[in-house]
Amino acid sequence: MNPPLAYHPVPPVLWRIPDAVRRIAGLLERNPASLPLERCLPPIPRQAPDRPIRLRGALASTFVAGLNSPRMGQSR
């Protein structure tokens, strides 16, 4: 007898905090005076089927990375 099949969803690829930290650091090197949160977000194609969750994940990771960057010496 075969075991029952199980559903295994593929998790979306989300923007992680280390990704956001690297992006913020790179952007601050080029323009240390001002950096709006929107510019720190990664480009997410409008046609991406999981765009809403990817946008929420990117915003949350970028926000946390921005809060942590002063502690890590990445802001002035």
Explain what the structure shows.
The chain has a domain of 37 residues. The mean pLDDT is 86. With 76 residues, it is mainly alpha-helical. Helix 1 packs across helix 3. 47% of the residues lie in helices and 0% in strands. The protein contains three helices and no strands.
Choose one word for the global shape.
Answer: elongated
Task: Tell me about the largest β-sheet.
Answer: none
Low-confidence stretches: none
Fraction of residues in H or I helices: 40-55%
Q: Quaternary state, please?
A: single chain
Alpha-beta classification = mainly alpha
Query: Could you give the distance between the termini?
Result: 65 Å
Give the overall average pLDDT: 86
Number of strands: 0
Q: Which percent range describes the beta-strand content?
A: under 5%
Q: Could you outline the blueprint of secondary structure elements for this entry?
A:
Blueprint (H helix, E strand, L loop, with lengths): L16 H14 L6 H4 L10 H18 L8
Helix pairs in contact: 1-3
Output the keywords.
single chain, mainly alpha, 76 residues, 3 helices, 47% helix
Summarize the structure.
This protein has a domain of 37 residues. It has 3 helices and no strands.
